[in-house]
Amino acid sequence: MAQVDIQGVSKVHFSIKGEPLLALLDVTLQVEQNEFFSIVGPSGCGKTTLLNLLAGFEQPTRGTLHVGGKLITEPGWERAVVFQEYALFPWYTTVENVRYGLQRKGLSDAEQRRLVDHYIGLVGLRGFESRYPRELSGGMRQRVSIARALAVNPSVLLMDEPFAALDIQTREYMQDELLKIWQSEPKTVIFITHSIDEAIKLSDSVAIMGPRPGRIEEIKTVDFERPRDPTDPTVVRLAAEVKQWLRQQLFETKQTVPA
Amino acid sequence: MSAKPITNEISAPASRPPTRAAAASPDAMTQLAASMVPPPLPAWRRVLARIARWWLLIAFVVVWELISTFRQRINPQLEVMLPPPTAVISAAQDLLNRGVLFTHIFDSLKRVLMAVGTATMLGVPLGLAMGWSPRFRNVVDPLLEFIRPIPPLAWIPLSILWFGIGDVQIVYIIFLAAFFPVVLNSLAGARDVDPYLVRAGLSLGARRWTLFSTVVLPAALPQIFTGMRIGLGIGWMALVAGELVAAPSGLGYMINNARTLFRSDYILLGMVMIGALGLVLDYLMRQAARLAMPWHRGQ
Question: Does pLDDT of B124 surpass 80?
Fold first, then answer.
């Protein structure tokens, strides 16, 4: 069984009026150990729903999700999440936020200190250990969030549009940093984004989702050497291909959905 | 064109303006920042600026003094209607000398603190539980919302029957007044916790009690303090009402007793003491909140 195994997952949400909506239809995919796997698609295609199911925040209406051979029934540290809006605990400092999951795991004080120190160094936050989140910039907050998630040593790291709230320069810098971290400490990553360029820059595989109902349309393998130059012709070609395909999708959807 | 490779990195120009180079060192940056702000005001201007916020209060006291003495000159018997601030001060001296002022203050403070303390100890856990568990809220809410609109003063007759005249009865009235703001604010605090923080806690392995103590409680703390401040304010009002009706001592008793003696200077003294003590208690509460929530300062 693959590290992450999603089999025939459908999810029904309800609108405020109580009408059932098909958020996901029959999603099946596998993610291998230490693979960097991105999921792209327009808003409303169900990519965040899929991540919530993987995190255990919601339960599928049909189908099963396994991580490391274990059926997902509730949230847990083996599937740590990095949220778009960071979701750092405002009442904890950088160190206390990173230590949070380690305390819940019941590690010894010495072990907690060692891991906290290691991950704060890894994300480049030395000197900011005793700051509260609101004293940090957006990019730094996301570093704390990444360190907090990595510190518990999850078997898969779930990232929900982690860089979407950052300005474009900070975003590109954080992408490079994330790649460095991932290369120094390989880990299975599931990365949700609406940016095709971001997905192609980072991932081994890119799943493309379509809306109404949310489903996996295609999975592309990206096997160019990293670091990837966004101006390299093969990268440009792949990105253009995916974008064109998505545009076509949106156009067709518009044709079939009454205004 | 030279065969310079195109890279993603931005190379620094050969010569940078001197100000930028200077700005690179933190010390120089601090100096630069300091040179940009206007120089500090001279000492007398700063003293004046500090007094500025008290001007209206001082003017109020002065006008009060003038009106009182003016009316007194027209008809000396009118003094009893509105004694001047100076008369209130001498009344305070008088009661201090006789040793009764502190007794009244102490008794009133004791009752308020006991009542608000009890309201906090019972109201915060109840409110948090209601905010956290919709099921619990649904069960408790009807009873609570039925009792809440009954004014604390309406409880006075029954409470005298139950507890007699004394500390317990007055503490009970103040408790009723302070309890509901404490409950409702704690409830709102726990109910409105950012759901993403709860998810973050869950996915990092927090459950039940740890989730509550590390996420829900600190998230609700600002609201809990707000509830306690409101409870303290309303409790202070209920104290006076309670003591006016039936009490062996306290500031409310002092005011009522002075009324029967026609001593309006004592009445005003009681009112001033209540105002000043309310201010002090609220200040202390805000300081406590600052200490308890270092991450929340300046917000």
Answer: yes
Interchain contact, B203 vs A89, CB within 8 Å? no
Query: Measured between CB atoms, which of B6, B194, B204 is closest to A101?
Result: B204
Judged by a CB distance cut-off of 8 A, whether residue A11 touches chain B is no
Contacts 24+ apart (CB under 8 A), B135-142: B137/B187, B137/B191
Name the β-bridge partners of A81: A158
CA-nearest residue of chain B to A145?
B200
Do A57 and B204 lie within an 8 Å CB cutoff? no
B42-97: pLDDT as tens digits: 888 888 888 788 888 889 999 988 988 887 777 777 677 788 888 899 999 999 99
Mean pLDDT value across residues B119-136: 95
Strands (DSSP E) found in chain A = 4-14, 20-31, 36-40, 62-67, 70-71, 81-82, 156-160, 188-192, 205-210, 215-221
Bridge partners of A157, per DSSP, are A189
Give B211-266 pLDDT, tens digit per residue.
Answer: 999 999 999 999 999 999 999 999 988 888 888 877 888 998 999 889 888 888 99
**N- to C-terminal Cα separation, chain A:** 44
Cα–Cα distance for residue pair A194/B281, rounded to 1 Å = 53
Contact B125, B118 (CB under 8 A): no
- Model confidence, pTM: 0.81
Q: Which of residues 183-242 of B touch A (CB under 8 A)?
A: 194, 196-197, 199-206, 210, 214-215, 218-219, 221
The Cα-based distances of B59 to B52, B53, B83 in angstroms read 11, 11, 17
Q: Is A56 near chain B, with CB under 8 Å? A: yes
| For A57, nearest residue in chain B (alpha carbons) | B199
- DSSP helix/strand/coil, B98: coil
Neighbours of B173 (CB within 10 A): 27
Domains and CATH numbers, chain A: 4-80+154-256 (3.40.50.300)
The shortest C-alpha distance from B218 to chain A (Å) reads: 7
Chain A nearest-CA distance from B202, in A, is 6
Is the pLDDT at B23 greater than 60? The verdict is no
For chain A, positions 225-254, list CB contacts with chain B under 8 A.
229, 231
**What gap in Å lies between CA B137 and CA B126, rounded to an integer?**
9
Closest chain A residue by Cα to residue B298 = A134
Cβ contact A163:A142 at 8 Å? yes
Q: Can you list the domains of chain B with their CATH numbers?
A: 107-245+271-293 (1.10.3720.10)
Closest-CA distance, A251 to chain B, in angstroms, reads 34
Place of tokens 């490391």: A68
Of A259, A253, A255, nearest to A44 (Cα)? Answer: A253
Residue A197, C-beta contacts closer than 8 angstroms, at least 6 positions apart: A230, A239
Q: Of A229, A138, A227, A123, give the one whose Cα is nearest residue A177.
A: A123
Which of A165-169, A254-258, B271-275 has the least mean pLDDT? A254-258
